[in-house]
Amino acid sequence: MKLIRTIATLFGAASLLVACGGGGHDAGKELGLTNPEMHFVHAIPGGPTVDFLVNGAALQSNISYKQVTNFANVNTGQTVVGYATTGSTTLLASGTFSDVANGHEYTVIAVPGLTAPDIGLIDDPFDKGLLSNSARVRSFNASVNASNVDLYLVPQGTDVNTVGPTLAGVSFKNAVPASGQDSVYVNGGTYVLIATTAGSKTVIFQSAPFALANNADWLITTVPIAGALSQLLPNQIHLLVAQGGNTSQPALELSNTLNGE
Prior knowledge:
Number of helices: 2
Domain DUF4397: 38-152
Distance between the termini: 45 Å
Strand content: 35-45%
CATH superfamily of the largest domain: Carboxypeptidase-like, regulatory domain
Shape: globular
Pfam families: DUF4397 (PF14344)
Keywords: Signal
Number of domains: 2
Organism: Paraburkholderia humisilvae
Signal peptide: 1-21
């Protein structure tokens, strides 16, 4: 699909890049012309500071909880990723992307488990239209204590009984949309995030209102509330929002207004 789009729109894309100065639309990425990019999200409450390793070498170092690293260029092809306690090469968890491709974004997530650290992998083909200014949204479940949830990105005051989930059936260690599929596109605006147990309207999390900007690129990750006991209690979660690999600030942690936080 990207190859066809590249051939069909190459001259139009060049004009767009000149007109827009190359910013905002990620034309090279959309057309599959740029190198693959990869970043890392530390989503283990109370976890150690870690180094992010790609094919056995540290790509980024000294990463703490809630930190989202900048996207970095990586090579194409099969790629082994993992993370280790800072200064060590002994992996706490690892995984493999079978075929890293140009124009794609890849996310590696340090995931808390009940017995040992775990890992999550997302391949994002970045099929955003060249003229679109919509926000891109994707979810990931890093909460073994809330192993299957539905997420609603809705205006404040929305009754979830009257609408379907924005991101449905987000199971532990999996993304919605699934790895290899493009993100969901929504208009910028003011929203709240609501989580329910999957397939039900039982609300377990509701955020305060927040602004979602046009052209934002959000990964919404459920995480257990920090603390050994809370990680064992069902549905005790917060949401982390990783904003397009921007490390000017850590991932935004949304608290649960249902608990008065």
